[in-house]
Write a structure and sequence with these properties.
Helix content: 25-40%
Radius of gyration: 18 Å
Number of domains: 1
Structural class: alpha/beta
Oligomer: single chain
Low-confidence stretches: 252-260
Order of helices and strands: EEHHHHEHEHEHEHEEEHE
Strand content: 15-25%
Distance between the termini: 58 Å
Number of helices: 9
Largest sheet: 8 strands, mixed
Strand order of the largest sheet: 1-2-3-4-5-6-10-7
Mean pLDDT: 91
Length: about 260
């Protein structure tokens, strides 16, 4: 059977090369981005700033690998999806054992859950691999393709709602039903992202600023990628805020929230 292709991603690397400049193990998985492919919940904001989508345009090999994954998964039924994902994660597990590396896997460095059937396939495989910590950000929480109920409550999976101003109205609904789910909010500035998270939670807690974006952690070192070093997202420890404007990434300080 033709296999799915994993990706090297420096930011999420669970094991770095000796010089600390690249990922040694492919511990991420991607699909082509956009509403025409795997992102039914794509917003105008994410389509405008999506770094992964930009990489697809720049690197033909990257796009080819993502299309390969897309074709395999959309060309089969749920049982076939499970078989494909099971084989890929089995290969990742073997790589980690061989290199004595921590088992942390990022689902969808590019792309998203394009159907409930696909999300359910991932849920099966994640539960089969309790020694691996998985994490994912998703915009597939709107009516018509809401996969949250299939993914929450799995001990070794951290799920983040990927929120911006275009889909923020739905986030409080999901959080109210599933309080354990985390929020990853993208805004122009870290302050505004914090205000948005606090509004979704109906409290004054703005979440944590991504430490790599605010310069508190390098993208990758000999100890691994920024996400693996930080562990906030991989283990679902906190809501997280991102800023797409560089001037809005000044620092990770708590924003001053103004209650209405």
């Amino acid at each position: 059977m033709t296999t799915l292709k994993r990706s090297h991603d420096r930011k999420v690397a669970n094991l770095a090369t000796p010089n600390g400049k690249a990922s040694k193990i492919q511990n991420a998985f991607g699909l082509p981005a956009g509403r025409a492919y795997s992102c039914p919940g794509a917003t105008s904001i994410c389509e405008r700033v999506c770094y992964a989508g930009k990489l697809e345009k720049v690197y033909k090999g990257v796009k080819a690998a993502l299309i390969h994954n897309w074709d395999l998964l959309t060309g089969t039924d749920q049982a076939g999806m499970v078989a494909l994902l099971r084989e890929m994660i089995g290969q990742f597990d073997s790589d980690c054992v061989k290199r004595n590396a921590p088992k942390a896997f990022r689902i969808h460095w590019d792309g998203d859950f394009f159907s409930r059937e696909y999300a359910a396939a991932w849920a099966i495989v994640i539960r089969e691999n309790p020694s691996i910590q998985f994490w994912v950000y998703t915009r597939s929480f709107l009516p018509g393709n809401n996969v949250v109920d299939l993914l929450v409550g799995i001990d070794n999976l951290a799920v983040y709602l990927s929120v911006d101003s275009d889909n923020a109205e739905w986030a409080p609904v999901i959080v109210a039903e599933y309080p354990s789910i985390k929020v990853a909010l993208l805004a122009d500035t870290m302050v505004n992202a914090g205000i948005g998270i606090a509004a979704i939670r109906s409290d004054d807690k703005p979440g944590a600023a991504c430490p790599e974006l605010v310069g508190q952690l390098p993208l990758i070192t000999v100890n691994g990628g920024a996400c693996f070093t930080c562990q906030l997202c991989p283990k679902g420890k906190a809501d997280i805020r991102f800023a797409f404007e560089k001037k809005g990434r000044v620092n990770g300080k708590r924003p001053e929230l103004v209650k209405a």
